[in-house]
């Protein structure tokens, strides 16, 4: 080492200055942002999500777009994504044929009553299992847990 580089090493805290040929060591948090890591993240993370999003969103967008098309634009050999002559006739036809407010009201009533019944039964069952000493309470609790683990449609499916 020459005397100039020794003085520089002493004034800079005892370490020799880096030469241009030495490689810089990145801190751990910066390693996540290297070009290769970002490319891997894009290909294995964001690209599959984007493909899945397109598979889900495009049919919905097509359906919504088609709802504003007249019948002759829907049934054609050269379909277009956007309607040429947008109209609300399809919505008026549905409104005339189906009483949507009645259907919505019935769904709301059935959902509310079913939810209230489930909550009341869950509260009374939990109270009985916790505060009333019943022989076999642990077995009953285990049976409830097992019943909750079985998907709702499984008993309806054929096993053959």
What would the keywords be for this entry?
flat, 160 residues, mainly alpha, single chain
Task: Give structural notes.
The chain is mostly helical and 160 residues long. It has a domain at 99-150. Helices cover 64% and strands 0% of the residues. The chain contains seven helices and no strands. It is flat. The model has no long low-confidence stretch (mean pLDDT 82). It has helices spanning 3-11, 28-31, 35-66, 71-74, 89-97, 100-131, 137-149. The N and C termini lie far apart (84 Å).
In short:
This protein has 160 residues and is mainly alpha-helical. It has helices at residues 3-11, 28-31, 35-66, 71-74, 89-97, 100-131, 137-149.
Helix content: 55-70%
This entry's quaternary arrangement is single chain
* Number of beta-strand segments: 0
* Gyration radius over CA: 34 Å
Beta-strand proportion: under 5%
Overall form: flat
- N-to-C CA distance: 84 Å
Helices and strands in order:
Blueprint lengths: L2 H9 L16 H4 L3 H32 L4 H4 L14 H9 L2 H32 L5 H13 L11
């Amino acid at each position: 080492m020459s005397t100039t580089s020794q003085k520089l090493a002493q004034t800079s805290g005892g370490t020799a200055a880096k030469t241009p040929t030495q490689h810089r060591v990145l801190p751990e948090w910066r390693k996540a942002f290297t070009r290769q890591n970002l490319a891997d993240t894009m290909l294995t993370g964001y690209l599959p999500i984007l493909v899945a999003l397109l598979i889900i969103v495009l049919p919905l967008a097509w359906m919504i777009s088609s709802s504003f098309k007249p019948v002759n634009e829907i049934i054609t050999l050269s379909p277009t994504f956007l309607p040429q002559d947008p109209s609300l006739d399809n919505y008026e036809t549905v409104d005339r044929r189906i009483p949507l407010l009645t259907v919505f009201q019935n769904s709301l009533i059935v959902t509310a009553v079913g939810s209230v019944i489930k909550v009341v039964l869950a509260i009374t069952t939990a109270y009985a299992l916790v505060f009333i000493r019943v022989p076999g309470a642990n077995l009953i609790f285990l049976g409830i847990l097992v019943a909750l683990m079985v998907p709702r449609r499984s008993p309806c499916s054929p096993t053959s």
